[in-house]
Predict the structure.
Amino acid sequence: MTIYIGGEDFVTKQIAKRLVRFCLPETEPEFEDLTFRVHGTRALESLGTMLNFAKKYPVVGVFDSDDNCIIDLLNRYLQKERNVDYAAINFAVDEAESWLLADRTGMAEYFGIPIDMIPSKHRVDKEISDHIPYKTSLYILTEIAPLSKSVSIRNALSFERPGKKPSTYNSIWGKYIDEIWNIDEACVNSDSLTGAIKRIRRMLLEKGLL
Amino acid sequence: MLLVKTGEDTALKIRELGLKNWRNFGNADFELTNRTFIIGANAAGKSNLLDVFRFLKDVTVDGLQKAVNARGGIKKLRYLNARSQNYIEIFVRLTDEKKDGAVEWTYQLQFNSAAGKQENRDINIRLERITCQDKILLDRKYAAGDYLSNQFTFLEQPAMNGEYRVLYDCFKEISYVNIIPQLIRETDSFLPSAATEDFYGRNLLESISATSARKRDSRLKIINKILKMAVPQFSNLEFKQDENGRPHLQVKYEHFRPQEAYQREDQFSDGTLRLLGIIWAILDGSGVLLLEEPELYLHSEIVKQLPMFIANAQKSNIAKNRQVIISSHSYDLLDTDTIDLDEIMILEPGKEGTTIEKASSSDAVRAKIEAGYTPADAVIPKVTPKGIMDGQLSLFDFL
């Protein structure tokens, strides 16, 4: 069985694949990337085509909301289509990295830092990122990575130029997303991730795959 | 009786290829169009598939034994998982479309190694069969006791192949091009290769030189036009011979000085030389042309226009009988809505060897096109190596 994924970068696509595996624990799905040639907002620009395809085939997309209203994003990138229930298009608030950070235990272990260094979600908050003053990925780079006990993580996430994401940024996330990231625990700290899981399960059910 | 007289103008095109136990392919069969794109991941078998056509040429030019030996013997040729039926089979269906109604030909060859213990055993023909319009022209099987005749195809022997000389001519005309710019640039490189087939463009200049002036000028005019767009500083591509009679290509190179400079091929860029060589090959002659990953060295915008150039050339008088088979895994090459899914063959490696699927027979690929994706969007992800697509780690992650 092939599940078609979409995302705006390596991290979002890797998360999309892991979420599918989480929702289909008994099967070994194959994946095809619908957004393999486009990155960032250009991936969102192809959302309409992705949804056309999703009418027949199972599609899971993961994108960053980047602090935008999700309804606004859908309005911006989808001219006519408003009902996207037949696809599992998910927006991480505010970034996919906040879903990763939401597994505080896993993140603390992987980075080799005390769990207290990872922001926590207040009872009334919806997302762990609600109390992060700027983009989660930048927060990880500036506040968490420098404290890591792992030399390779520190190296991979050290800035080469101020304000520019390190060129080795993606290299640490594959292993974390696939082997360490505890989605159940992360869901406790992220409503948008919980919603994504529900959306993916519903889509798989509708497509007769669950 | 000759079905087609020798010398009569024919335009045979290969329409179907069937394989058994050929390198990566345990059992494969696919159709070919005037322009066929063979798409697959690294090591999927693209070159091995093109090599079938080269093999057919080698059989007609050098004979079966030499064609097999040139590939390292039958052990190197035979599909690794070959089981009880361990002979190699090549089946080709061709049509001659220049006539009133197509004339259909088939050629089927089965061969195996002769019994014995020696390392380089001779190759025995198990079956050789030729038909034309359902008429069987040749149907020979392994002849027990006739050791020698089992080693030679009838097709390779002009004294035997009169009735099906058109097949012989068609296979002999197959050309393979994988231009290596450095070899064109090296002025002496053509000498050692002069007597052999020119896969890598060593003898491109010689070939241009050997073409009649009228044809050469008309082709260079086309190439000049294309080069002018690809390299705006270039103009007036000309054929020249130096004082020693060596052939050269020369262009005017415009720069900031009022008088242009002249450049010869040894000063051309890799991309310019490769583009030039590919275009020349498309325009040069008729028959089947095999292009191996033509996208190498070329700018993506040029690669995107290559399929349309081939189609235009095939519609023109210059290359109307050219059938072009292209191996690639380039996104840019397929990034156009002018390629039909019937023209794309997808190679998918699996435990039982590589399979070949016409892109149009995949429901998912068709659905992608209907959704608004280009053939490149629809097909290239299918040939992304599974390990990379599913991989927990990125390709160059060594942490």
Q: What stands out?
A: Residues 129 and 139 of chain B are 4 Å apart (CA to CA). The first helix of chain B runs from residue 46 to 62.
